[in-house]
Design a protein that fits this description.
Strand 11, helix 7 (213-218) and strand 12 form a beta-alpha-beta unit. This protein is an alpha/beta fold. The protein contains 13 helices and 17 strands. The protein is 33% helix and 27% strand. The protein starts with a strand and ends with a strand. The strands form three sheets. Strands 4, 6, 7, 8, 9, 16 and 17 form a seven-stranded mixed sheet that branches.
């Protein structure tokens, strides 16, 4: 981080400047950040010492990072997923989740104060991500950090939990007593969905690998089916009010839709907008994706009487505050399997690529 000092101001610790000034635009011009200059393997990631810190817009918050988690979206983007959108914008900064403290606030920010501990997540299409000492998020993308969890623990929660929240609360609008099937409950989004549904009083069935059975049942799933050893259509009984498919391959889509009550909701994380845009370019890809989604909605509406949706994470201040409340109460957490220093970002990505670490990985900042 480079600190600019005026000759008329006696140099002081940066924390004192942050607290007294409420803004560091005149003091911090750059900071460390992990840049993605081109698509490829972990070796393309570059930790650079002096990356510019933009001025804040009125609704934005500058967050001093303490921990950021690695999401599947990060490794996919690094490898070229979303190329049609992101390639013209290279170099970019990866990362969506963050936990840290407020370093400065924009003029219209009212709910947060300088020095406050916060956690939150950026939208999937953000170009300046969170793999940086100082990240910029909008006010509605942040909430006070749950006091009962560490920064490492908090950094794993927002992106996954908000994705699950959008599916369950905004799309399916689950209510007490309903039945939910989570296909892929061992991943972060699926695991968050189980906990959100249990907190809402729903009955949850999930599929997962054998290594995740104990974890998902401890989180409240009433039935956990090992998809590697059991036939889902034989083992899972009855119909569901909502199916969240975090895997999204044709077979899980078929099974999930066949297990739904009429009039209820099938939701998949594997929408085709990015893949089609990468293949055919944005001008053709996005209209094609819209047509594919519309076709499936009409098809399943008439064949099965169900609602079909692609799910993407979006900022939701109400959702994030409820997620914070549940986390504070010990009802929502995402287990951390390993932490790395931000200086070890290549090693962390390599470990995820080679599936040496199946669970959540967190990058820590000194």
């Amino acid at each position: 981080m480079r600190v600019l000092k005026s000759q008329s101001v006696k140099p002081r610790p940066i924390w004192e400047l942050l607290t007294n000034m409420g803004s560091i635009r005149n003091y911090v011009s750059s900071c460390r950040a992990v840049l993605l200059p081109r698509f490829g393997g972990p070796e393309v990631l570059e930790l650079r010492p002096h990356v510019p810190v933009p001025d804040l817009k009125p609704n934005e918050v500058l967050v001093r990072a303490r921990a950021v988690s690695i999401n599947p979206l990060d490794t996919r983007m690094r490898s070229g997923y979303g190329r049609s959108l992101f390639e013209p914008l290279l170099p970019l900064i990866l990362g969506r989740d963050i936990s840290g403290f407020v370093a400065a606030i924009g003029a219209s920010v009212k709910s947060l104060t300088v020095g406050e501990e916060v956690f939150g997540a950026l939208h999937p299409t953000a170009v300046r991500g969170t793999y940086t000492d100082y990240a910029i998020l909008s006010e509605d993308e942040l909430s006070p950090k749950p006091a009962s969890v560490t920064h490492v623990e908090a950094s794993t929660i927002p992106f996954a939990a908000l994705t699950a929240w959008r599916a369950l609360k905004c799309t399916a609008r689950i209510t007490e007593g309903q039945r939910l099937l989570v296909i892929g409950g061992g991943g972060a989004v699926g695991f968050a969905a189980i906990q959100l549904a249990v907190a809402a009083g729903c009955h949850v069935t999930t599929t997962c690998g054998n290594q995740s059975i104990d974890r998902v049942t401890a989180a409240g799933a009433e039935q956990a089916v090992d998809y590697t050893a059991e036939d889902l259509e034989v083992v899972i009984k009855g119909k569901f009010d909502a199916v969240l498919d975090t895997i999204g391959v044709p077979e899980t889509e078929r099974v999930g839709i066949n297990l739904l009550n009429r009039g209820r909701y099938y939701m998949t994380l594997q929408g085709e907008a990015a893949a089609l845009s990468d293949r055919y370019g944005l001008p053709m890809g996005l209209p094609m994706a819209t047509a594919v989604l519309l076709k499936k909605r009409i098809q399943y509406k008439y064949s099965h009487g169900i609602e079909y949706s692609w799910i993407y994470m979006r900022a939701d201040s109400e959702g994030l505050h409820e997620i914070r409340r549940l986390s504070e109460a010990g009802k929502l957490h995402i287990p951390v399997d390993k932490t790395f220093s931000i200086t070890q970002v290549r090693e962390a990505h390599e470990a995820k690529d080679k599936k040496r670490i199946l669970g959540k990985v967190v990058l820590e900042f000194d």
